[in-house]
Fold this protein.
Amino acid sequence: MVRKRSIGVVAVLTASALGLAACGQSSGDGGEGGAIELTITQNAIAGGKNAAAADHIANWVIPKFQEAQKAKGKNVTVKFIPSGVDDEQYKTKLSLDLKSGKGADVIDIDGIWAGEFAEAGYIKPLAEVAGPEADSWEGWQQIPEAVQGLATFNGKKYALPIGTDGRVLYFNKTLFEKAGLPADWQPTSWQEILDAGAKLKSSGVPVPIQINAGTAMGEATTMQGVLPLLAGAGGEVQQDDKWTGASQPLKDTLGLYQKVYGGGLGDPRLQQEAKGRDKSFQQFAEGKVGILLEGDYFWRGVVNPKTGVAPMADRDQVVGYAKIPAIEPGKGIRGQDFVSMSGGALRTLNPSSKHPKEAFELMAFTLSPEALKEETKDGNVRITPRSDVNKEILAGEPLLTFISEQVLPLTAYRPPVAVYPQVSVALQEATAAVAGGTAADQAAAEYQKKLEGIVGGANNVAS
């Protein structure tokens, strides 16, 4: 899932276009029998942006939660504070509110903002705000450890994950059959991907392999290209408080780009086009691309037979999918044979909430099996963070089940820090250089020079 780049907290706080008005704030004495008022906000609004999510909170979560609290003898009312703006505007307003001790009790944020907000002191570990029950919440037992990583910063849980995704290799079974490749293809090394690409090329496939590269595709290049490959080579963009420079894993990653785009297995010109990613989608749907590295959005939103932007009527019969292999078995991060990358959103507590325990109960309620099943019915099916819920709601969704059961347990995430977007652009530039003919090792060295300038010098970079 591609996310818009976040901007630094310092820049956020200098913004003057938005005022310091709070999203909403708890009130009431909170004493025995006293009224408790809570607020919850997300970047969603009825009839507009993320309307289904807004409707779910306003029309189902709030009345059900208030009813449950009443049954416990608590007089709790909840108000939904909608928003429907650009993600950066939403982030700016949250930052200003949290800095000034205002804002809603329960707040949704992009996972990539978590570390930045934590470092600024805008959010705190859940257990520090709501008490130890936050760490003992029953839902944690149903959330894979890798997915919990999305909500974890410096070893502490700062939020609850409310959704995630995963990246896989898609392939066209019809083209594979013509090239003599199996319909149940599952490569176990990068060389097997290249070998499949060579067979596809020999059988006349115009674009055997598409791995996003260059700056025109933006974060899609990083999330659907560099980072999963880097993980497959045993590296991470940031590790042990150091940023990865011209390391062997990065050289291996750029080396694969060189073999794909320098070896005639991919279209380097496509990586430079403003609408290159959209064009690659259309080419895949038309049977011109053999192998494509993408997220589950590709299956749900691109080649979806009913609602896709490049619909494939025969998607379920023609489109295959496989896990992304490590460069060689056992050589991926954590010694894994297969890897992936994920994005996602979080639900967190405002440290200034007057009723943090009840606010946490509201958060937990939104991620109860009952609430998630309600939210994902009527065509709104998606991968939830809970394995118990996914087993039920994804029963008729083979790709989403595959990602939930086989991909999420081995996934990884981008570092949730303010400087990451600049690092991401530098990685995109490195892939653009390689796709344009620059040697992998040279592109890696040039990347390291840029990286040192971005992250504060060579002392913060490991190579």
In short: The chain has 19 helices and 17 strands.
